[in-house]
Design goal:
This protein is an alpha+beta fold. The chain has helices at 13-16, 51-61, 63-70, 109-121, 210-227, 275-287; strands at 21-31, 34-41, 81-85, 94-99, 132-139, 142-151, 154-161, 165-176, 180-188, 192-197, 241-247, 258-264, 268-269, 297-301, 307-318, 321-330, 332-343. It has six helices and 17 strands. The protein has an eight-stranded mixed β-barrel. A hairpin with an 8-residue loop joins strand 3 (81-85) and strand 4. The chain is globular and about 55 Å long.
């Protein structure tokens, strides 16, 4: 009887189906539980004279590739991605386009911490220095400076300085179906967020069901979009409401952590405290006189209990808005690498989401 002996080294997908398989390569990380999928191969070059033009191009011409990596079956409803592209800024070590379940963001704080480590570990910064290496990351909202702990050839915790963060408006009354009139604040931290206390919905950010928090946040987001017209001094591409952050209401300065939950894009839930959201929350607390410059606060995810620390470090301006530069600090970790295959005859190759 002849025995079938398997090959010691199986054929790769490229060898198995040349011309029928598109291979996309990624490196996955997480910061405070929030995923970041860094695309390392299989994505075409994105043309454009500047980063916001590249963001428009990828949204209009290459969106199917976002769907393939963010949505099922290769991703999931709450996957978050980063595509590294060229920058027109001479000081930038790298430029990044962010992607999620609905489209493309302009800023992502948890990604700054992950990309800071990645840039140091994978040679995007020519000569890392100890005890801290600066990495200039060009985001659609502007240049963000990350500072990566680097000791003994190993990267560690990362802090970053935001683009100018400012309060757009406070105490805005909006009608939220099922809840009546709710008062919210709208603040920019690289993206615009609405802020509301969980008490308005008789919820607790640390113990209520995630579904209840998501439903409340989505209702607020929809109400604010219907009520408030946003603008940004630098570009109208930045003038959109990204999501809603439900807080525990503990905005006055304290050494104890204050918790929040961020819901953004298409009801996507941030597992971390949300870096750009915490940036905006610190700007709001500073605007209301509840914290001083360089007073460090700890911010906790109501879902995973992961923490970021943050503080307002400098007063500045953004157009006519009084603004602050905010420093956020946290720790990112590697979780794996993958080659994803897209076969031409796969009817679901472009991804899907289940409700």
């Amino acid at each position: 009887m002849t025995r079938c002996v398997p090959r010691a080294v199986p054929l790769t997908m490229e060898e198995r189906g040349a011309g029928r398989v598109h291979v996309m390569r990624v490196l996955d990380m997480h910061t405070g539980g929030e995923p970041l999928r860094i695309i390392t191969g299989g994505f075409p070059a994105v043309p454009g004279p500047d980063l916001l033009s590249k963001r428009r191009y990828i949204r209009e011409r290459l969106d199917g590739l976002r769907r393939r990596l963010m949505l099922e079956p290769r991703g999931h409803r709450d996957m978050y991605g980063a595509l590294l592209v060229g920058s027109e800024l001479p000081d930038a070590h790298l430029a990044v386009l962010f992607m999620h379940n609905q489209g493309y963001s302009t800023m992502c704080g948890h990604a700054m911490m992950a990309l800071g480590r990645y840039a140091v570990d994978y040679g995007l910064v020519a000569q890392p220095s100890s005890p801290e290496t600066q990495v200039n990351i060009h985001c659609p909202c502007g240049l963000v400076r990350a500072y990566v702990q680097y000791e003994g050839g190993k990267s560690g915790r990362v802090r970053f300085h935001s683009v100018p963060a400012f309060v757009f408006a406070t105490d805005i009354p909006v009608d939220v179906p099922g809840h009546g009139k709710i008062v919210v604040d709208v603040v920019y931290g690289g993206a615009f967020y609405a802020f509301v206390s969980a008490d308005c919905f008789s919820l607790d950010v640390c113990s209520s069901k995630t579904r209840d928090l998501v439903d409340a946040a989505v209702a607020v987001t929809n109400a604010v979009k219907a009520r408030v017209k946003l603008h940004h001094p630098d570009s109208e591409d930045l003038a959109f409401l990204y999501g809603t952050i439900i807080t525990d209401g503990k905005d006055e300065f304290s050494k104890k952590p204050t918790a929040n939950v961020c819901v953004f894009a298409d009801a996507q839930v941030d597992r971390s405290p949300c870096g750009s959201g915490v940036t905006a929350r610190i700007a709001l607390q500073y605007h209301k006189g509840l914290i001083l410059l360089n007073q460090t606060r700890t911010f906790q995810s109501g879902l995973t209990n992961s923490v970021f620390t943050g503080k307002a470090v400098e007063e500045t301006k953004c157009g006519d808005f009084k603004a602050v530069v905010v420093e956020i600090s946290g720790q990112a970790h590697y979780t794996g690498t993958a080659n994803f295959y897209v076969e031409d005859d796969d009817d679901l190759k472009d991804g899907f989401l289940l409700r």
